[in-house]
């Protein structure tokens, strides 16, 4: 009977105001079940519990409430772990394992969204296909680990050329696609920045490489109004850039 005569407000302390809506509902005869997170005294985080308020009804009148509190810390940890695992699985399904860029699956969704938006607003949408010139030579000469580092560096250089809301995706070994809409400076300036950024020296051991890119681009609605048509036009422009000697940009 240590707490006999203690009010609920005194017993709960700083939790009283947070729990008051549940207390009032319980005194109206409504069973309450809710989670609560209580800061640990040592400041190491929150302690999770599940509280149940059960009205004690006598002759149709609420005489008091029974309170049951269960520690659900382990359950919350499992929920957190499951959520993290789900988010990681979703990320792996939609992003490239090496560069962390969106993959083809996620890019396709973003193209569809961009085209649907452009049909409403009239803005131009650009898709750029990018191949690293002579990448096979880098793999054959310096090995696949060096080739992987090289691709990661190219991915970062491409990202540095675009806006936060543009999409740079890796869709194959040395193949990238960039989705951009409503470019205020036009597609030529973006492609020029990418070519210039790629040409900066890349060090592999004692060797210094000067990378280059072949870039082909297509635009909505000039080159098509569907995802398939835009991608096909982009591929044609990329092949043209390669035929013309690589290290250049071609707009379909």
TrEMBL record:
The record's InterPro entries line, in alphabetical order, gives: DGC-Regulatory_Protein, GGDEF_dom, Nucleotide_cyclase, Rev_trsase/Diguanyl_cyclase
Every copy of the GGDEF domain together lies at 123-252
Matching Pfam families: GGDEF
Question: Highest taxon of the source?
Answer: Bacteria
The record's section on PANTHER family has:
DIGUANYLATE CYCLASE DGCT-RELATED (PTHR46663), SLL0267 PROTEIN (PTHR46663:SF3)
Put simply, this protein is called GGDEF domain-containing protein
State the organism of origin: Pelomonas caseinilytica
